[in-house]
Specification:
single chain, 263 residues, alpha/beta, Rossmann fold, 7 strands, 41% helix, globular, binds S-adenosylmethionine
Length: 263
């Protein structure tokens, strides 16, 4: 297995991503999350849609790449009796433990070598993690999540959509070495097109929906002021309500739900 990517990602999160500044903001937020206002209502909507996907599930939740346990993760955790956090970054687990305390167990491990037995969790949340795993290991990472999930359990994955129009433009710009839309490449990123997910249909019912219209770097470049961002996210919210299938193709992030149907 090629662990070079994992080493690079771990180093980034331990040495930079989960390090907080004097205002207690982690670098991940400054670098990749904060667009400077205008998407607050949209963010609340995304969080509600994520929580809804898990609301009929209880028992034991596994959070893969738990990171600094943002609010969406903490609220998802509240719906379960027990929570297992897995991350390759010790710094991530330390922050997670401060937020979840004894409700959680914390494993410094890769999902590729997850220390959990078969059929032992009721649901999985894996947000913005899989596309930071080496492209040749992503299938195995998903298979591991399926192995650990009980039959009837649900796996929710937030993933990048490489064929979204803005992603295609980004790749074209990269070819011409115009990197503004991309931001500085600090982390490995690779994502497969939506039809890659059909390989898991023998074990799971698979559904893919649009999740987030635009990445932070795209928003920072294309929507430079708050009023533009508010208008765009307002429009995006209405568009995805009216055209969910199109949103799954056009949006920069998708949410993949795997309902495990076979032992
Ligand atoms: C972009 S952050 C996402 C954090 C959080 N899930 C969120 O949505 O904000 C990615 C996290 O996944 C972790 N990670 C990356 N590769 C991993 C792997 N193979 N197994 C477990 N965690 C991993 C990183 O250390 C980091 O904490």
């Amino acid at each position: 297995m090629n662990n070079e990517v994992e080493k690079q990602v771990r180093r980034f999160y331990d040495e930079e991503g989960w390090v907080a500044d004097e205002s207690n903001t982690v670098a991940e937020t400054t670098l990749f999350r904060d667009v400077g206002g205008g998407r607050e209502i949209y963010d609340e909507k995304l969080k509600a849609s994520l929580l809804k996907l898990l609301e009929k599930h209880d028992g034991r939740l596994m959070i893969v790449g738990s990171g600094d346990l943002p609010q969406s993760h903490v609220q998802a955790a509240q719906q379960f009796n027990k929570v297992v956090c897995i991350d390759i970054s010790q710094r991530a687990l330390d922050i997670g433990k401060q937020k979840l305390g004894d409700k959680g167990t914390y494993h410094l491990a890769s999902i590729l070598e997850a220390p959990l037995v078969d059929n032992s969790v009721d649901a999985v949340l894996c947000a913005h993690v899989l596309y930071h795993i080496d492209r040749y290991n992503q299938q195995r990472a998903v298979e591991e999540m399926i192995r650990i999930t009980k039959t009837g359990g649900r796996i929710v994955i937030i993933y990048l959509n490489p064929n979204a129009p803005l992603m295609l433009i980004q790749r074209a710009l990269k070819l011409f070495r115009v990197n503004k839309l991309l931001g500085k490449a600090k982390l490995y990123v690779h994502s497969y097109p939506i039809n890659w997910w059909s390989q898991f249909e023998s074990d799971c019912k698979v559904s893919v929906s649009g999740y987030d219209a635009i990445s932070t770097n795209q928003a920072r470049t294309l929507l430079p002021n708050k009023s533009m961002r508010s208008k765009f996210f307002n429009w995006a919210s209405r568009f995805e309500d009216n055209h969910p299938r199109l949103a799954a193709r056009l949006w920069s992030y998708v949410i993949v739900v795997l309902d495990k149907s076979h032992p």
